[in-house]
Amino acid sequence: MNPQLKGMEEIEGTYAFDIRTSNKALKLNRFFWNMIRAEWRDRYKADPEAVMQEAGLNDTEKNLVRTEDWLGLVQYGACFFVIEKFARVVRKTNLEVYAMMRGETFEQFMATRRVPESR
Amino acid sequence: MAKIIGSIGTSHVPTIGVAYDKGRQADPAWAPLFDGYKPVAQWLAEKKPDALVFFYNDHATTFFFDMYPTFALGVGERFPVADEGAGLRPLPHIKGNVDLQCHIAESLVNDEFDLTIFQEKPIDHGCASPLPLLWPHDPDWPGALVPIAINVLQYPLPTAKRCYKLGQAVRRAVESYPEDLKVVIVGTGGLSHQIHGERTGFNNEEWDHEFLRLLQFEPEKLTELTHADFVRRGGAESVEQIMWLAMRGAMPEKIRRLHLNYYLATTTAMTLALYEEGEEPAQAAAATASRVPDNATA
Predict the structure, then answer these.
(1) Which of A29, A41, B33, B93 is least surrounded, with the fewest CB atoms within 10 Å of its CB?
(2) Which of B59, B84, B154 sits opposite A22 (nearest CB)?
(3) What is the complex's ipTM, to 2 decimals?
(4) How far does A100 lie from chain B, in Å, by closest CA?
(5) Closest residue of B to A7, CA-based?
(6) What is the pTM of this model?
């Protein structure tokens, strides 16, 4: 146990991305990371199943990607900072992803914000 | 000899870059953010630093988790601004100063900070989000960057204390550089925010202002906090505020704040602070804890 993370498990709705998680979800995170390359993005858009296969994703991972299950991805072990690269490819803004992780519609989420017109 | 003339703390929210590129500087939702940068841009224009040492984090762009450095320093005359999934931004490549970067790297390693060195790599919004708000870039940047990336993504992260000590070592490195350069230290990230899990959208304005007070007057207290403490108080991703501690470590004991802009619009308390060496008037210091933040939206 990393002493710097003592008490983290008591913080609800929070998933510490550590090297154990990273090791388990490395292929999934690499698949998302590759979205910074235009060539990978284009190939994914043309044939998502083939690119997921090439990336070595298992069935659980493929399904999380297919359904764009943002909260499920985080709970599985995806790092938000590579997820957001994938969000750009499937034309979702970060604010839209935040709303879905909270289980809210976009408008519901924005209504909780200080400056809802900031989007 | 080179000299540190001041320091800046700034958020590095990626949407700042998006709003900047879309020309939303005068948009009522964004003006409180962009206007807040003008006094700091003005200060930089007047002081004309030769280099900015940027404590920032890579967002799994330049580096991937198959080899993720704890501390990494960039060496090169140029660094492209990274494509992070949405294409390239209309910004000139970030400028470097190889001699200064190499000196700082040598000094840090000899001071027991065993850094990774990266070269010819693109740099993401960790630097590129705030940089154009601080420095003009048409046709080119007025000075060089010394990018120092800190792992705040994949635990174990360096401790708050380690980051503070890194800042102290950077001060020794800058002050031992033989050329008479003017250097500004920039710490990026924060303040309170959480952008993953059901707790997404968490903020804590009271803690944000307490953090700013401690950073200025009692930074050692912040070095005693664990990562879990930062996560609990400011949200999961606010742990990146350990990079402000690196900036603070590079500054002398007494600093005064010349400017503060605090704007919490959606999910991140976007904050900008400018510091110089010197004594804060006692009254101002006492008032800091309870002051109403500049540009805060109630």
Answers:
(1) B93
(2) B154
(3) 0.97
(4) 9
(5) B228
(6) 0.95
